[in-house]
Structure formats: C-alpha cells, structure tokens
Amino acid sequence: MPEMHWLNADMNDDTSRPVAGGKNSAQNLRFVREEFLAEEPAPVSTVGISGWMRINLFSSPLNIILTAFSLYLVWLIVPPVIEWAFINAIWEGEDRNACLVDNAGACWAFIDAKFGQIIYGRYTIDERWRVDLVYLIGAGALIPLLFEKMPGRRYLALFLILIYPVFAFVLLTGGNFGLPHVETALWGGLLVTLVVAVVGIVASLPLGILLALGRRSDMPVVRMFCIGFIELWRGVPLITVLFMASVMLPLFLPEGVNFDKLIRVLIGVALFSSAYMAEVVRGGLQAIPRGQYEAAHALGLSYWQSMGFIILPQALRMVIPGIVNTFIGLFKDTTLVLIVGLFDLLGIIQLNFTDPNWSTPQTAATGYAFAGLIFWAFCFGMSRYSIRVENKLNEGTRRA
Predict the structure, then answer these.
(1) What does the pLDDT read at residue 392?
(2) pLDDT score of 29
(3) Crossing angle, helix 363-393 and helix 320-333, to 10 degrees?
C-alpha cells in the first residue's frame, strides 16, 4: 500500500520534498505542507448586522413570529410617544395658556417653571447654593470612586462614609457658622429623595451583614434576637413603618423629647431595608461550601478574621444582583415618605399639580413622565454599574 507507506513516512519525516511510491510515481506524487492556510472570512450570513439578526431574531419560526409581533408593538407605541414628547410638545410658556392649544403634546413648560422646586423642594431660595455645594462635593467624590484604578479610592470611601454625611447635614440644616437655619420640613424634591435613599443604602448594608451573621450565630440569644428583628420588620409594609416613625413614635418618648421628622424617617427606612438586606446576605453565606469554613479554621483564623478575609468576600460577590436589587427597590420606595408630609421628587411634582396657573390636561402626564425618567436614570445607572462590578469580580472564576 504505497499511499499508506507515504502517509507513515510523512508523519515521521516533516519535509517539503515530493515523495514517490508505487508503480506509477507520477500519479502518486504528494507534498508535505509547511505553512497553515490563510484564514478565510466567515460566511456573510453569520457576521455583521445581518448575521446578528439571522442568529438572534430569525433563527426559528417562533423567533420570526415574536420578532414580527415586537416590531408591530414598537410601530404602535414609539411613534405616538415621540410625537407627544417631542414633536407636539410645548417647551416654553409663562402659564397654562401655553399648553392649552389644539393637539398639544407634553407640557415641558410646566417642568421648566417648577424645576427649582423639583430639585430643591421648598428650600429657601437664597440658601439653595448650599444644596448645590452638597451635590457638587458628593458627585466629585463618588464619580472617581467608581473607577477601580483611581488612586486614593480608600480615602474617598472613608470621606463619603464618615465625613461627608456630617458635613452635608450641618451645611443643609444650618444654624451654625453663620448659616441661617433651614427646617427639614422645607426640604423636598430630589434633595429628599437622595437623602433618604443614600442614608438607607449606606446604613442597610452593614446592618444587614451583622443581622445575617447573627442569624447564623451559635449563640441562641443573638440568633433569636436577629431572627425576631428580621421577621418583625419584614412582616410590615414600609408605609406602616413610616407612619409609626412619624406619628406613633413621639407618643412613646418622654415629655419634651422629640426627634426631627426626617431623622425618624431615615431611621425607619434604614432598619426596614436592613432586614431585607440580611436575608440577601444570608443567602450568600449559605452558598459558601463548608470546606471554606474548615479551611479558615485550619489556618488558625478567628471567627471575624475568617469572615472578613475568606467567607464574606465570596458571599457578597455571589449576591451582588440581590444587593443592588434591594438598593433599587429602596430608591423607588422613597416616594412613600409623602405619607408623613415629606415631599420627595414625586411628591413635589404632585403638589404642583394643584397650581391653577398650570392646570392643563397634559400637566399630570408630563410630570409623571419626567419623574419616571429621573427614577429610571438612577436605577439604570445602579444596575449597569453592578453588572460591571460583577463581571470584574468574576473574571477569575468564569468558565472558559
């Protein structure tokens, strides 16, 4: 078998010379290739926009039907929304008369006229620079913190956690350093929304971790206390917690002792959110294999060392989606503070619906659309950043 003989010789002798064999050497002339063939382009049907559409939108009869139905819904919904929000929208005007025209769309003139109250609430106009300064410093410290390679991130985190809250509270309330006092009852709009959300988020995570660890503790007293705390706060709606913190709590305090309404709301929101956060963290702790605990004990680490260096980093990485989901839910639940007389972003918009100077058929729809856009922007930003962090932390454990 000359061809088989040539194949064996070819495998053992990697040369490029011609090999002859058999009765007719001209017909059995073979060559050994020394170079790989050049890569050929992928089929046109699998690359580019057409390839993506073929794979994701038209890969099966069911996908073709769903794609056609989705395009039909887009055709029904998107053009009218664009026409209402942009084409027929009223962008400027002094009062309601600007929006009382035929085929009028969104009354953005109402948002422009009430924009100051939407951002600051009823905060004293001459002192709004204090709110702007708080916004500016907070954003200036938070934005660099979002980048992993930014130098000094640890110090920025400590500043935001320890120093910035005190600085913001003193600056916003005033009464010291020559600043006029501004009651928290005058705070409102985006200011109240961010204050309640940020305080709830920052306070609920460490409290939730401690409650989760306490619920898994070997000490019966600690375990029962944490279980009772979690089940109590999870068993009542947030609106009830806010009502109790604002109306009922002062009845149980000694005479002459009282807390600011906003502070009571912040405490109630933080405790309520920490109960849900505890269950999210506990799910991550239960997902850690027992071998990780045994390895920590084998290294001679104490309980807190093993939790801080080995267990909690893995557990928190696993439950990042749950943690961010709790944060997003808390951010949207800030609208419930209206029940206790605090006007957040949505509350201040609803309050301005009663202004007769802007009473039009499009005012309410425009206000709700603007509020929804603001809430969506914040929630979407938190969601995308959490995905980025999750992908970054999972690089070492991602399967090929």
Answers:
(1) 84
(2) 56
(3) 160
Q: How far apart are CA 139 and CA 132, in angstroms?
A: 11
Is-contact 347 335, C-beta < 8 A? yes
Cα gap 30→10, rounded to integer Å: 10
Show the low-confidence residues of the chain (pLDDT under 50): 1-16, 19-20, 400
pLDDT of residue 3: 44
Are 188 and 121 within 8 A, CB to CB? yes
Tally Cβ neighbours within 10 Å of residue 386.
Answer: 17
CA dihedral sign, ordered 281, 285, 287, 292:
positive
Domains and CATH numbers, the chain: 1-40 (no CATH), 50-87 (no CATH), 108-393 (1.10.3720.10)
State pLDDT tens for residues 7-24: 444 444 444 455 445 555
- Taking the C-alpha atoms of residue 301 and residue 327, their distance in angstroms, rounded to an integer, is 32
Q: pTM for this structure?
A: 0.83
Residue type, 307: M
Query: Nearest to residue 107, comparing CAs of 345, 347, 352, 400?
Result: 352
